[in-house]
Design goal:
By secondary structure, this protein is an alpha/beta fold. It has 2 domains: about 55-200 and about 365-375, Aspartate/ornithine carbamoyltransferase (Rossmann fold), CATH 3.40.50; about 205-350, Aspartate/ornithine carbamoyltransferase (Rossmann fold). The protein is about 35% helix and about 15% strand. Belongs to the aspartate/ornithine carbamoyltransferase superfamily. ATCase family.
Length: about 375
């Protein structure tokens, strides 16, 4: 069991995410000049002999793995990852847990700039990415409600926005309401794109932190039983997590959802093709008694066109103290957050309630991803 004394991520007020961050043109110019200066320095040294490869990460079995051999310039789809790439991310995330302020490790991204483009609301994802960049010494250019406060409001396409912002930043973190938007962005970008959620499609960084949390909490990723509960049709987190879980042996998945938000057939077909056992169940208590991980999700009101369907789905599956009595002592409850009423607050004090530790793990995993993605082509960033 994960150390329950670990400080939990402070619950952030929704008010911190209201309003856009307005950037004065002079600040943007200054940061752009800083980036251009670094690029010119890199170009000037391009004729120098290439340094010998160093700092290769190790997988759990001791074999060396070069992150760059994974050909993951962007992080847009969980299906792009293999086990070797996941191992590298996790080993780097473990290092990130130990990074202290004002140390060499806390300055590895000094001089680098990350831009966040969020067309949908976010607390944990946006702030954890921004905190991750800051904790590694980098700079953040941020815009919230980009559809309203960026040139998208004037009709600018996503592709044109990305081509413009990449002139000011070394990587772009994007959340968008349209499925497939991150792939569109990556198709035109010359800097790394990190998908922070594209509608009901993918959320690969959440899936990685979820997998990391499972490893840290129960100590293994093989031979586990995972119960996924709630809005599975619109839940990009569960879709992405299923793709990562499919790489591990002897994994069994239970889908527990109201009829109108059952898991989509494409995910079930994906798991079947990879030999992963999955079952659709209606009794949450039976699943809770057997699961190693109970992954609860919110019924996403914003995805419904028919509010009658939303009303029928909401409140059907609740994790409360009574259900926790059924859960195995070694099992954990996870949730990508935010929650509404699908986990009662009296569950929070149970040591098996891992969702705030899960949120904190998002910081470490995103620190690792930023460092790894920006290290590609930048030998000054040590791996």
């Amino acid at each position: 069991m994960y150390n329950s004394t670990m400080p939990e991520l402070e619950v952030l007020s929704r008010s911190t995410c209201r309003g856009a961050t307005f950037l004065h043109r002079s600040v943007v110019r200054q940061l752009a000049l800083q980036r251009d200066s670094r690029s010119l320095q890199a170009a000037a040294s391009a004729t120098a002999p290439a340094p010998a490869p160093s700092g290769s990460a190790l997988t759990n079995n001791g074999a060396t793995v070069n992150w760059h051999s994974q050909k993951l310039k962007h992080v847009v789809d969980s299906g792009d990852f293999n086990r070797a790439a996941v191992d590298v991310v996790f080993k780097e995330a473990l290092k990130m847990e130990k990074v202290k302020p004002n140390t060499k490790e806390s300055k590895v991204l000094s001089g680098y700039i990350m831009s966040t483009l969020f067309y949908e609301p976010s607390t944990r994802t946006r702030l954890s990415f921004e905190s991750a960049m800051s904790r590694l010494g980098g700079t953040v250019l941020s815009t919230e409600s980009a559809g309203e406060y960026s040139s998208a409001a004037k009709g600018e396409t996503l592709e044109d926005t990305v081509r413009t912002v990449e002139a000011y930043a070394d990587c772009i973190v994007i959340r968008h309401f349209q499925e497939g938007s991150a792939k569109r962005a990556a198709a035109v970008a010359s800097v790394p794109i990190l998908n922070a959620g594209d509608g009901p499609g993918q959320h690969p960084t959440q899936a990685l932190l979820d997998l990391y949390t499972i490893q840290r909490e129960i100590g293994r990723l093989e031979g586990i039983k995972v119960g996924m509960v709630g809005d599975l049709a619109n839940g990009r987190t569960v879709r992405s997590l299923c793709m990562l879980l499919s790489m591990y042996n002897d994994v069994q998945v239970y889908f527990v959802a109201p009829e109108v938000v059952k898991m989509r057939d494409d995910v079930k077909a994906y798991l079947t093709a990879r030999g992963i056992k999955w079952t659709e169940a209606s009794d949450l208590h039976e699943v809770a008694a057997d699961a190693d991980v109970l992954y609860q999700t919110r019924i996403q009101r914003e995805r419904f066109l028919d509010m009658n369907e939303y009303a029928a789905a909401r409140g059907k599956y609740i994790i409360d103290k009574d259900l926790m009595r059924i859960l195995k002592p070694t099992a954990v409850v996870m949730h990508p957050l935010p929650r509404v009423d699908e986990i009662t607050t009296d569950v929070d004090s149970d040591p098996r309630a891992a969702y705030f530790r899960q949120a904190r793990n998002g910081l470490y995993v995103r620190m690792a991803l930023l460092k790894l993605c920006l290290a590609d082509g930048h030998p000054d960033i040590p791996l």
